[in-house]
Structure formats: C-alpha cells, structure tokens
Structure prediction request, 80 residues.
Amino acid sequence: MTSTLYALDGCPYCERVHDALAEADVEYDTVWVEELHSARDEVKRVSGQRGVPVLVDDDHGVTMAESERIVEYVDRSLGS
Prediction:
C-alpha cells in the first residue's frame, strides 16, 4: 500500500488522522510540512491547496483534505 499523509507537527487534526491510520493498521509515510502556509508548495502541488492534513492514497487514486473526510475514508476503505 502506498499512502502519504502531509501533516504539521502539533496539529490536532493531523493527529486525528494519524490515530485513525494507526488504528486501521494502515502503513503510510508522513511528510512533515512547514508551519508557514506559503512554504507548503508540495502540499499545493499534490492537492491544489496548502492546508493539512492531506492524504494521498496512490493505490486507489485518492487525494483528500479535511480530517473528518480522511478519517471516514480510512474507516470505510482502508481499515483491515
């Protein structure tokens, strides 16, 4: 499985997604982003916006933002 989570250290929304991925036993890589929005070029490139968290699931061709949506997706589609 190839999933990548773009997250900001100390972000409670990002932690919520980390917890959901761990609970679902999903292997993923984390890309830690800069605190400054204008420095988040990689997040903008993959998602079209600079906010985090952003989950990229290459296996299913899914890129999404918003922690609530990501957690629902993990529970529905990636959970074991």
Q: What stands out?
A: The chain has a mean pLDDT of 93. The radius of gyration is 12 Å. Residues 34 and 40 are 6 Å apart (CA to CA).
